[in-house]
Amino acid sequence: MFETLSDRLTSALGTLTGKGRLSEKDIEAALRQVRMALLEADVDFKVARSFVSKIREEAQGEEVIRSLTPGQTVVKIVQDNLVEVLGGDSAHLQRGDTPPSVIMLVGLQGAGKTTAATKLALHIRREWKQDVMMAACDLQRPAAVEQLVTLGKQIGVPVYSENARKSTPLKVAKNALDRAKRDSTHWLILDTAGRLAIDDDLMSELEEIKSAVNPIETFLVVDAMTGQDAARSGSEFNRRIGLSGMLLTKMDGDARGGAALSMKSVTGLPVKFVGVGERPEQFEAFHPERIAQRILGMGDVTTLIEKAQQQIDEDEAKRLEQRLRRNEFDLNDMLEQFRSIRRMGPLSDVLGMIPGLGGLRGSNAMQNVDEKRMSQVEAIILSMTPQERSNPRLLNGSRRRRVANGSGTSPSQVNQLLGQYRQMQKMMKRISGPGGERALQNMMRGMR
Fold first, then answer.
1. Tens of pLDDT, residues 165-208
2. What is the pTM of this model?
3. Which residue among 123, 290, 351, 438 is least enclosed by CB atoms within 10 Å?
4. What angle do CA 12, 13, 18 make, to 5 degrees?
């Protein structure tokens, strides 16, 4: 997410942070690079121009130029303005006084509304610990109803649907609301139809549905890869329908960040959620301050901790702690830790949330983090017998050759994994033993 923009901005600002004193010429040269980075990211040109103007006005003051750390002061100014452009304070999901709280998803065809409805349903159930139901109101696109029903089964969320030939989107929405009330369901998410372009028929249909069900939230689902066009369509939907926020999809793809950076300034509406991957759980609330930190290579520890908490079971964590204290960390434990990390998302994104490592994007160090290597590790460990996983000392030469053949790797790759296991075992022992907190601090200090 925002990798290209992040690289360009950190490079531009890096020319300032290395200097003990700044001149107006230095600041102007950096701001030219910042402006070009924003335009290349497909940020609305008016938003880019206003953003750079505000930074120039604040950065050329006497207190900045005469500051002991002028470069860092400018970076702080950029960060504050970036947060403001992204939306300022985080916009939270609203909830009605009485259930169900209805959320209506609208947008153009191909934006990913059906998938977004599924991800939002799973997110609400996990975060709020409440029942959710989805309604298939898209009777235009072939197989749209079947798709939502299938996705609902995958995450265990019920879907209300009717025969597309015998019903209408308005009837589906009304009947779904009645069903949700009868079942005392806390949340109802409406997946509505889209068009290839905005037209009166689409808008009239959405206006009727909104008037009938009175949603607490009406989100425009936008493909992040559409850039400035996303902001323009957002303005039109808001004018006709009335929106409460935006939901950006495909932020993990080739999105340059223009949609997220332009949306609030152009439409006046906050981005509330973003889809960051294909899996249902790869979906997160949009926090402007955290996103600004990621863009500037400062990391995002809060989101990293939240992702870890979602993937690591508390009972499993206590069990692992006990095993570490008894020096019983084996290959089964190592495999589980690797799987937990993989469930948190792409490794490059996870490492980018660690302060100090965000600037490594695109470097050889980051490129060496290979997703396929993680799959290889899993294949090697699963090719071992339960006894070998519990007691790696059993792995002599012939056993290692058998494991290599079974996992499609070489004996040297098996040896490499066992070497990593021994290093990880020593590290875990140091952290869990007496003085473990100091050992962890020393390790983190060595990473800087």
1. 999 999 999 999 999 999 999 999 999 999 877 888 889 999 99
2. 0.70
3. 438
4. 115
